[in-house]
Automatic annotation (TrEMBL):
Name used for this protein in its record: alanine--glyoxylate transaminase
UniProt keyword terms in alphabetical order: Aminotransferase, Pyridoxal phosphate, Transferase
Protein family: Belongs to the class-V pyridoxal-phosphate-dependent aminotransferase family.
In-chain residues carrying the UniProt-annotated modification N6-(pyridoxal phosphate)lysine: 200
GO cellular component: peroxisome
InterPro entries (UniProt xref): Aminotrans_V_dom (IPR000192), Aminotrans_V_PyrdxlP_BS (IPR020578), PyrdxlP-dep_Trfase (IPR015424), PyrdxlP-dep_Trfase_major (IPR015421), PyrdxlP-dep_Trfase_small (IPR015422), SP_NH2Trfase/AEP_transaminase (IPR024169)
Source organism of this protein record: Laccaria amethystina LaAM-08-1
PANTHER family with a match to the protein in the record: ALANINE--GLYOXYLATE AMINOTRANSFERASE 1, AMINOTRANSFERASE CLASS V
EC number: 2.6.1.44
Amino-acid positions noted as binding substrate in the UniProt annotation, renumbered to this chain: 356
Length: 391
């Protein structure tokens, strides 16, 4: 069977904020025959995946790390390689994942200060500047799109402030729910680390931790005074591996997820338009269009967004409060009955009051699938039915 002949089995439409639907080409690549991780056939696939990862982040010189693990492993990589005991870290907290990143940094010995936004809001830029002027930080971290709130932070503006006020501070962005669905200009914005995972905008099954690191951050890691505090997440172990595969030769520390790398490679070919398809900028525009459609449909149904400011709402997902009188048990099972899988609430303070829809990747880019149409019509029907059942 060839790629063009393969079609995945019928299934419920998965529109949570990750994992997301994957293209037939990607799923087919994941079913590649079992292959040695040091095979001459696999080496260029891994090497090309490293190079194409740079294309997605729009960077020429940053170092990608592709390691078996979830997006959470990215936090461990940052904390164990860039932070030493007692180093100060500033965490901009826009939801659940800000709390978690802070917890990880503290686990590795960082002294963490948090600036917490109100639910649905972002940290004011003026507050960031004030704190940076009052205290020195080794790293500043923020979540580009916090999946718990659907809030999009202004990565470019944050980076500009850090570069101007505290240029020695490393800028670390959690892009798990933003890479490939939100515009990211790694080099032009002056980012130092972007961490992400395979199962969201990158359109690949879960299981790959993807971290992209600037030359400046690599130098900070190489000059650390104490040993790296993780074994598996150590760049001492992984940097030679990434360098080797990109140079065209195999190397070994721990076995990479070979089949998943094949799948990731297939998805990257679609995203970077090395196959026929939209350009990266066109992909971002398609995500904005889908986001607008879903959010407008929600508003017409009486669903208020969790983000307080429309300009700070993610393009790859929507977080919507239930209308008055409607609960998760009223709506979500009715969507499932229509073969549409959305996500319940995650932020502990409002968990039962809202739900989340993912609209990224192939569901957005391939309009012929009709995924966004199906989400909107199913939402309309399920809510009408839920309201009728209350009467």
């Amino acid at each position: 069977m060839s790629t063009s002949e393969f079609k995945q089995a019928p299934h419920k439409l998965l529109v949570i904020p990750g994992p997301i639907e994957v293209a037939d080409e990607v799923l087919y690549a994941n079913a590649h025959p079992s292959m040695s991780h040091v095979s001459p056939d696999f080496v260029p696939v891994f090497g090309d995946s490293i190079r194409m990862t740079r294309e997605v982040l729009i960077t020429k010189s940053a170092q990608p790390f592709l390691i078996s693990g979830s997006g959470t492993l990215g936090w461990d990589q940052v904390a164990s390689n860039l932070v030493e005991q007692g180093d100060h870290a500033l965490v901009l907290n826009t939801g659940y994942f800000g709390d978690s990143f802070a917890d990880c940094l503290q686990t590795y010995g960082a002294s963490v200060r948090q600036l917490k936004a109100p639910i649905g809001g972002t940290v004011p830029l003026a507050d960031i500047e004030t704190v940076l002027k009052s205290e020195k930080f080794k790293v500043l971290t923020f979540t580009h799109v916090d999946t718990s709130t659907g809030v999009l932070s202004d990565a470019h503006a944050i980076a500009q402030i850090v570069r101007r006020v505290s240029p020695e501070t490393l800028i670390v962005m959690d892009g798990v729910c933003s890479v490939a669905s939100e515009e990211i200009q790694f080099d032009d914005w002056g980012l130092d680390v972007v961490l992400t995972a395979s199962q969201k905008g990158l359109g690949t099954p879960p299981g790959l931790s993807i971290v992209v690191v600037s030359e400046r951050a690599i130098q900070v890691y190489q000059k650390r005074k104490t040993p790296v505090t993780s074994y598996y997440a150590s760049w001492d172990k992984w940097l030679p591996i990434m360098k080797a595969y990109e140079a065209g030769s195999a190397a070994y520390f721990a076995t990479p997820p070979v089949n998943l790398i094949y799948a990731y490679h297939a998805s990257l070919q679609l995203i970077t338009a090395s196959k026929q398809g939209p350009s990266l900028q066109q992909r971002f525009a398609l995500h904005k269009e889908a986001s607008r459609r879903v959010k407008e449909a929600g508003a017409q149904l009486g669903m208020k967004q969790v983000p307080l400011n429309e300009r700070e709402a993610a393009n790859g997902m929507s977080a919507l409060y239930f209308p008055d009188g409607i609960t998760a048990s009223d709506l979500l099972p009715r969507l499932t009955a229509r073969q549409v899988i959305v996500a319940g609430g995650l932020h502990p303070a409002i968990r039962d009051k809202y739900f989340r829809i993912g609209h990224m990747g192939i569901s957005v880019v391939d309009k012929q699938r009709g995924d966004i149409d199906k989400v909107i019509s199913s939402l309309q029907e399920a809510l009408q039915e839920a309201r009728a059942s209350k009467k």
